[in-house]
Amino acid sequence: MKVLGNKVSKPIETKGEIRFFENFILNTNHLSFMAKIKILRSLRKVCSFLNRDKDCKLLVTNLQNIVEWRDKFAHGSISFKTTRNGYSKNAYLFYYEENKPKERLLNQRFFDNIIIPLLSNTRRDIDKIRNKVNKLFKKKKPTFYI
Q1: How do the domains of the chain map onto residue ranges?
Q2: What is the DSSP code string of the chain?
Q3: What DSSP string runs through 10-42?
Q4: Exposed / middle / buried, residue 133 (Cβ in 10 Å: 0-12, 13-18, 19+)
Q5: Average pLDDT over residues 20-47
């Protein structure tokens, strides 16, 4: 047993595969991206092996970076700069960061060097963690407290 605040918690031993969690939580359109991140954060609080796992820490960092880029695109604006000769041919993302206006050139280099690696690394980290969790479940672990 574990004491959390004024509550006594009983250990819960998890068993079986995590397909239900993947299919009905992670791979559903019923939950927003932020809701899924909040679920991951909550799981990290109760599953100590996720806190110690370096891949999980990288995943959390990458997910936070995805959220930040998503917010820049969602709350910023995409437009073309005005030049003396008219508009530039390049699209820019205009956004605020730490209450300061920022801009980012939206070219192939941006997507090849920032967005695509971020998404690929996140997918890789998700796969690594899924495999680790599945191995633990097959061993009838992990035990965590709720």
Answers
A1: 2-145
A2: -EEETTEEE-EEE--S-SHHHIIIIIT-SSS-HHHHHHHHHHHHHH-HHHHH-HHHHHHHHHHHHHHHHHHHHHHSEEEEEEETTEEEEEEEEEEEETTEEEEEE-SHHHIIIIIHHHHHHHHHHHHHHHHHHHHHHHTT--EEE-
A3: -EEE--S-SHHHIIIIIT-SSS-HHHHHHHHHH
A4: buried
A5: 78
Residue that is written with structure tokens 């995590």 in the block:
18
The predicted-structure confidence for 71-91, as pLDDT tens digits, reads as follows 999 999 999 988 888 878 899
The single residue listed with the structure tokens 């205009």 is 94
pTM: 0.71
Tell me the residue type at 11.
P
User: Any idea which residue has 């280099």 for tokens?
Assistant: 109
Q: Give me 23's structure tokens.
A: 């299919």
Burial class (CB in 10 A: 0-12, 13-18, 19+), 59: buried
- The single-letter code of the amino acid at 1 is M
> The tokens of 53 are what?
């796992």
